[in-house]
Amino acid sequence: MVKRKVLRRVPFKRRRKGLTNYRVRRAMLLSGKPLLVVRKTCSQVIVQVVKPEVKGDVVLAQATGRELRVKFGWPASGKNTPAAYLVGYLAALRALKAGVKEAILYIGLHRAVKGARVFAALKGAIDAGLKVPHSPEIFPSEERIKGLHIAEYAKLLKNEDPERFERQFSAYLKSGFDPETIPEKFEEVKKRIEQSVELQIAKTEPPTNEKKA
């Protein structure tokens, strides 16, 4: 009996590591538009607007959860739903400042689950003015985006199980932050982001040559 040699096709390295969905990426590249890339790590959400090129992607604008905490005073987690929205909002404002008006969402191999953090980041980008094809049904509710669910859970836990409350929110309490005030902090940080980008735009605008009457 003749044995047949079975050839096994090895997937690309980034596909094996679960980093890139080449079928989806190829379809997006054919559009010729920049990509709004949302990544999640163990400690933060990262949002980038990139322009795919042969030699590698060129980052046109970026924002991270860590930056949100260090530069804009966000006291909560850098990877929760409100943080994802704010990071997407900041990245999109920077992209608009760089001249990018539209993009296509790319979430890699993340599952497209309704209300997920990747779609909170997308909502932030769209609210900032970036045009991205989407379906409104995929977004988290406004309450979740503003962190109201976290505040209500913290209040409930504080009343019913103080020990667990202190244990679960120990990092927040250690830094002097009350988790019940997350919605208010969300609005504060969002305003800081807007003011920061507006200030940068004002500094880069060329002086006018209008003659005074």
Describe the structure.
The chain has 213 residues and is of the alpha+beta class. It has a single domain (21-204), classed as Nucleotidyltransferase, domain 5 (2-Layer Sandwich). 47% of the residues lie in helices and 11% in strands. Strands 3-2-1-4 form a four-stranded mixed sheet. Strand 2 and strand 3 form a beta hairpin.
Remind me, CATH topology? Nucleotidyltransferase, domain 5
Number of strands: 4
Indicate how many domains the architecture comprises.
1
Mean pLDDT across all residues, rounded? 85
Tell me the number of helical segments per DSSP (H or I, 4 or more residues long).
10
Give the strand order, joined by hyphens, for the main sheet. 3-2-1-4
**Secondary-structure element series:** HHEEEHHEHHHHHH
By helix and strand content, what is the structural category?
A: alpha+beta
What global shape is seen? globular
Task: State which percent range the strand residues make up.
Answer: 5-15%
CATH architecture: 2-Layer Sandwich
Cα(first) to Cα(last) distance is 100 Å
Biggest sheet character? 4 strands, mixed
Low-confidence stretches: 207-213
**Which CATH first-tier class would you pick?**
Alpha Beta
Radius of gyration: 21 Å
Short synopsis of the structure:
With 213 residues, this protein is an alpha+beta fold. The protein is 47% helix and 11% strand. It has one domain: Nucleotidyltransferase, domain 5 (2-Layer Sandwich).
